[in-house]
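Practice problem 4.
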């Protein structure tokens, strides 16, 4: 079910690849004013399960497009993940359910009385359960259609497409599965009936291999199908571009199957999971977390996977589990940060770049030599790095030429990365653009006098030296219509379909798409020094070092972690946020009543300096009965300041 387009109330074309890097335009100014090179750690939040305890109490799971459902042992359903169409908002009363199914952007729950409850996106009538809504024993959901199996062995199908035209005789079915554009029905005699496949293309997913017998379970993906045999082997057919039909050896001992867009899962009798496919669009959905044991059920979404453990806990991996909020170790020595759609870039004080998160397009593979960088920008699936010599390096996705930096790559002073394009600001105040969703890059005229740039989903912003903003590109939601008075701005930021401008008086102006409340700047709208825009959320950095976040919070992207202090830069990705923390001054950081080596070690970790040499912590020089800061400094001086981290940190 691969798609870079999300349809629903949050915008008719909410592209998944929308990612926008905004490094505070004021950060270099702050550093120069303090006479220092900023060093700090990065805090990340969002793009994860929010408010759902997955540790116990589940007896069923289902994976949808970008959301998940869990059936609790008390008969209630818990939903998490993408919710722009209400697909995780279970209607009341949330009770009495015995089975769940998740489609692309809608959900189904089967009640103990045999009725079906449906909610979420209804573009094709996929949530309009036909009458009589009774006598159902099983449910299945594709992106645009739904299936219900009746106690009499007949299948009821509703929604759009030929996948709802159940072949005759409509009888004798014992299980159903729904793919993107096709459906599967398992008969009581062990044969499989497949239908649909006419639109948008037949990849053979309806051509059940012979002998069509002995099947006990079925699963349907985007353009491929799976059948589990009674002997524990799996038969796979249809599209194989990602290897999703290449069942790994030994093909035996399976007790369950599940199919995502381009990947397949098989549950073994020993409780382990086997995953295959993922070759063309790898979001980690085939990387089963350890320990790979004690699983009793499996489910697959577009690009993510779920496993239910015997203890009632749920394990998830794949898309939105790419680790984009979790900063790799060592989380220290950073001077700038940028967030893309599903990956991040952190600039180290030594001029190197650390990249993490999704690497489907190579966007986290920093080119060698990884040195001499002074700025970073992360886009939808590509990355940019600005070198101290004024040149720009670009890597990652290049569908529209967004990594083809024009020659000569010289005299750049700032960079910005959008979903499918890149911008560079030259020292003479002119801009260079490359890569574009709509063809050749077009820049506003006159191309002069610019001091800052930002790239969003499909639009761009540039700040003039006179404080005015120039906006151009896709304008579906008015994101390129700068509000009046267009004056007094000192920084710009661009989200998927909204824009932000920071005024000299510390207030923020926001315009464009507001489906998540991302343009509703919270009060008091004052004291801001930096801004960032994500897909449907916004961030503002206050002068006191705190972060204000507003807009969509389905993935926790606006839940700024405590303590919300000492931040000096911000960045917003698709469904996650990042904040760069300044290393604290030496003080009683552990609140034990004094300033000691433990406090100094904590400061060392923030700066990312070398560890303390053991011999520097071995002598009670002042004879007070303990080894403290005074002893450490005395030894450090005696050995020529060769003690490592804490001395440098101080």
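Answer key:
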């Amino acid at each position: 079910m691969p798609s870079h387009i999300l349809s629903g109330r949050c915008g008719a074309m909410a592209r998944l690849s929308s990612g926008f890097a905004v490094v505070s335009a004021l950060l270099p100014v702050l550093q120069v004013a303090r006479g220092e090179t900023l060093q700090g750690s990065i805090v990340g939040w969002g793009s994860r399960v929010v408010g759902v305890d997955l540790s116990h109490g589940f007896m069923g799971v289902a994976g949808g497009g970008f959301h998940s459902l869990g059936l609790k042992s008390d008969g209630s359903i818990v939903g998490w993940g993408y919710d722009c169409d209400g697909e995780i908002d279970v209607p009341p009363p949330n009770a009495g359910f015995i089975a769940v199914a998740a489609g692309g952007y809608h959900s189904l729950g089967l009640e103990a009385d045999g009725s079906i409850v449906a909610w979420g996106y209804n573009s094709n009538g996929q949530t309009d359960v036909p009458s009589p809504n009774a006598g159902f024993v099983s449910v299945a959901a594709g992106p645009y259609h739904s299936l219900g199996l009746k106690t009499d062995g007949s299948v009821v199908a509703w929604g759009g497409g030929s996948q709802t035209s159940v072949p005759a005789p409509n009888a004798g079915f014992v299980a159903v599965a729904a793919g993107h554009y096709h459906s599967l029905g398992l008969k009581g005699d062990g044969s499989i009936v497949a239908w649909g496949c006419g639109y948008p293309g037949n990849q053979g997913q309806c051509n059940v291999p012979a002998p069509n017998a002995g099947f006990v379970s079925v699963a349907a993906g985007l353009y491929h199908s799976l059948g589990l045999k009674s002997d524990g082997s799996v038969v796979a057919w249809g599209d194989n571009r990602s290897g999703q039909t290449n069942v790994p050896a030994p093909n035996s001992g399976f007790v369950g199957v599940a199919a995502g867009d381009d990947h397949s899962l098989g549950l073994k009798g020993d409780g382990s999971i086997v995953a295959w496919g993922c070759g063309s669009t790898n979001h980690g959905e085939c990387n089963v977390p350890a320990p790979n044991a004690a699983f009793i059920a499996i489910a697959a979404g577009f690009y993510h996977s779920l496993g239910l453990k015997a203890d009632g806990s749920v394990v998830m991996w794949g898309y939105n589990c790419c680790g984009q909020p979790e900063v790799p170790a060592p989380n220290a020595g950073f001077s700038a940060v940028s967030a893309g759609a599903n990956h991040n870039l952190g600039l180290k004080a030594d001029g190197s770049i650390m990249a993490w998160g999704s690497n489907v397009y190579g966007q986290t593979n920093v080119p060698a030599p990884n040195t001499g960088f002074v700025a970073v920008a992360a886009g939808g699936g590509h990355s940019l790095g600005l070198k101290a010599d004024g040149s720009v390096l670009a890597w990652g996705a290049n569908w529209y030429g967004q990594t083809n930096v024009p020659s000569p790559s010289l005299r750049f002073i700032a960079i910005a990365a959008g979903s499918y394009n890149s911008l560079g600001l030259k020292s003479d105040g002119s801009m260079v653009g490359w890569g574009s969703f709509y063809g050749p890059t077009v820049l506003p005229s006159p191309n002069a006098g610019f001091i800052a740039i930002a790239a969003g989903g499909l639009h761009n912003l540039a700040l003039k030296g006179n404080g005015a903003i120039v906006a151009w590109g896709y304008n579906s939601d008015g994101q390129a219509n700068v509000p009046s008075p267009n004056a007094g701005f000192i920084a710009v930021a661009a989200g998927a379909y909204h824009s932000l401008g920071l005024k000299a008086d510390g207030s923020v102006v926001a315009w464009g798409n507001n489906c998540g409340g991302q343009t509703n700047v919270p009060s008091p709208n004052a004291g801001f020094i930096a801004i960032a825009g994500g897909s449907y959320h916004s961030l503002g950095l206050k002068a006191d070092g705190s972060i204000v976040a507003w807009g969509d919070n389905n993935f926790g992207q606006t839940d700024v972690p405590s303590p919300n202090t000492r931040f000096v830069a911000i960045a917003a990705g698709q469904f996650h946020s990042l904040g760069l923390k300044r290393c604290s001054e030496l003080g009683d950081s552990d609140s034990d009543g004094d300033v000691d080596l433990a406090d100094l070690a904590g400061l060392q970790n923030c700066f990312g300096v070398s560890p303390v040499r053991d011999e520097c912590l071995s002598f009670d020089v002042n004879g007070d009965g303990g080894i403290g800061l005074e002893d450490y400094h005395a030894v450090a001086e005696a050995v020529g300041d060769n003690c490592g981290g804490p001395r440098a940190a101080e």
